Structure formats: C-alpha cells, structure tokens
C-alpha cells in the first residue's frame, strides 16, 4: 500500500430498529456504498489494496467482519482484504488513525 486516499464520502441511510432497512443484511447495504463509491469516482476496484470499514453497534448478522463481507457482496476482487472498526461515534476517526499507523503503510 503506497498511497492512502479517501476518494469520496458515501454512507448508508440511518435506520431504526425494525424499520425499513431491518430486513437488509449489513453486508448488502454496505456493498451498495462500495458500488456507489466506485461509480462516483470512476474507481476500478482492482486497484484497491484494502477496505477499512466503520460499523457501530455490531450485533447479530453484522457482528462479523462487515468490511470483508462488504467487499465480497459488492463483487469486488476476492483478493481485497477488509477489516471492520467499531469505535462508537468516532468510527471514521478510528479508520483514519488505523490507516495512518498501519504496518503496510
């Protein structure tokens, strides 16, 4: 990993317990974000080295590694690793800190 970039800001809608998004698997919802990110930035997923995903209140189906499962659900190359960070409110800050101190950097 040579250059670490934040290409654009894309997020999922905010849902509520038993709301309209409750039947959607977290990885599928996250895959929509990755797909939209690639579309907005004209990004070829084959050039992505890693995905660092922030997910707060990981419970049930989303208690696994949503960062990795999102890559697979978006049908990006299986060679792209993914990790999930849960830091409550400042998940985006933790993602940047993780990126900046990563040994791969």
TrEMBL record:
SUPFAM superfamilies per the UniProt record, alphabetical: Thiolase-like
Organism this protein belongs to: Gordonia rhizosphera NBRC 16068
Listed InterPro entries: Thiolase-like, Thiolase_N
GO MF term (any one): acyltransferase activity, transferring groups other than amino-acyl groups
Gene3D superfamilies documented for this protein: 3.40.47.10
Key words, A-Z: Acyltransferase, Transferase
Thiolase N-terminal domain span: 4-88
Designated name of the protein: Putative acetyl-CoA acyltransferase
